[in-house]
Amino acid sequence: MPQYTILSLSMGEDFDGNRDELPANVKEAYLDAAFGKDVSRAVEHGLYKPTSVVEAADPEELFSKTQHIDESWDEVNPPVWSAGQLRSTSVGDAIIEHDTDKVFACERMGWSGLEGDPANSLRNLRAGTAQPAPGD
Residue 66 falls within a domain, yes or no? Predict the structure, then answer.
């Protein structure tokens, strides 16, 4: 079964969940990603953190496996690795498919592939999960 690293969109530890404290350009980058417009500026501002590694057949199954519906998803579908308390996968989050090293962003409907600098920057975050990249 393929494994995916989930990279959650986050306001950063410096802001404790308070968007009002974010500088205007960082807030705009966060909101653009959270509303499914563009993740590249959120990547530039370091608004992603690895939160878990999950086994799923494809990104669509990953999304459905990582939703808090009646109970916490990690109790129903335990992750391979976790950074701690988890939330549901949401628009603006990103994933890395381990077998192919492809990077995808969660959209309002489905997933879009990421390439270039944003994808490479997100791949670098995978090192925090202690999960080897393809070929390692």
Answer: yes
Q: What is the pLDDT of residues 41-78, one digit of tens each?
A: 999 999 999 999 999 999 999 999 999 999 999 999 99
**Assigned domain for 134 exists:** no
The length of the chain in residues reads 136
Q: What is the count of structural domains for the chain? A: 1
Pick left, alpha or beta for residue 130 (phi over 0 → left; psi -120 to 50 → alpha; otherwise beta): left
Domain residues for the domain of 66 are: 3-129
Two tokens, residue 84: 């701690």
Q: Residue 4 is encoded by which pair of tokens?
A: 């995916």
Using alpha carbons only, what angle is made at residue 56 by residues 68 and 7, rounded to the nearest 5 degrees? 65
